[in-house]
Specification:
The chain is α+β, with helices and mostly antiparallel strands and 94 residues long. Helices cover 38% and strands 10% of the residues.
């Protein structure tokens, strides 16, 4: 049985400790969509000042987990099988 999205929002940080560790918050959650926010803190930025890829991955994984809790059967488990990251190199040449 799926959990009510309101309950998931209220209890998610307790269910998923990394969410509270990073201060991730819900912007929206329903049966089809989840939007979460990661605080813009220096500790979560990379060496060029943008969001660190690991922080972005954690945010995406947290959102997908919330959808499983709010739409699954209660017996479902989300297990990451793979992740693909595409890097773009921007050269600053004069």
């Amino acid at each position: 049985m799926a959990l009510d999205p309101t309950l998931v929002r209220a209890q998610y940080a307790a269910m998923v400790p990394m969410v509270s560790t990073l201060g991730i918050e819900f912007e929206a959650l329903d049966e089809q969509h989840c939007t979460m926010l990661l605080p813009d803190e220096a500790a979560y930025r990379n060496h060029v000042g943008g969001p660190h890829a690991g922080a972005m991955w954690t945010l995406a994984e947290s959102a997908s987990g919330a959808l499983v809790f709010s739409t699954g059967t209660g017996e479902d488990r989300l297990v990451t099988g793979s992740i693909t990251v595409t890097w773009t190199l921007k050269l600053n040449r004069r």
